């Protein structure tokens, strides 16, 4: 109820234009206001703004003050809180989310590519697909959220966690006869439990792009496409 009062200017206390309206809007919130220590007599419409201020102070500050203090006590372990106070800029990315656009190079750097032994026939086919993968990432930069979709396809996350992924994202390749496959699949496969993409061995970039686009557009939840 409190969130409705604070966040919805079209209802409740914020839109009360008479004392009678103000009292009516308070009635459903009496228990909450009493628990929050925000009960006050309404003598004028000015008290409406004071009431909203009290509710905001309770929701944002007083309600979380106890847990916040316990959190600080925990951070004192091993001197973490002291280090945070000395180096706030270094710790800020761990505690404060700062959205930023992914780049193709950033996504590429996240993935460890598992290649077959050098000199093998498999290695030559895999290296060709690696160039397709990197070209695909470069093309994906042109879209507003395609790199996020690629990351989510592999890991289930649309952004890189502050402490990184565990395990690190990886790329493997699907060869004819691998595992349960009697023929080479044409779509990429993902296992978000281990942050892994398995890429089919296409021989042209256009086919690689077409099948990857289809995979991104038709993936719902976890598992194989």
Automatic annotation (TrEMBL):
Active site, per annotation: 193
InterPro entries: HECT_dom, Hect_E3_ubiquitin_ligase
Coiled coil: none
GO MF entry, a single one: ubiquitin-protein transferase activity
Domain (HECT): residue spans on this chain: 148-225
Regions crossing the membrane: none
Keyword hit for Amino-acid biosynthesis: no
Keywords: Transferase, Ubl conjugation pathway
Pfam families hit by this protein: HECT (PF00632)
Name of the protein this chain belongs to: HECT domain-containing protein
Organism: Astatotilapia calliptera (Eastern happy)
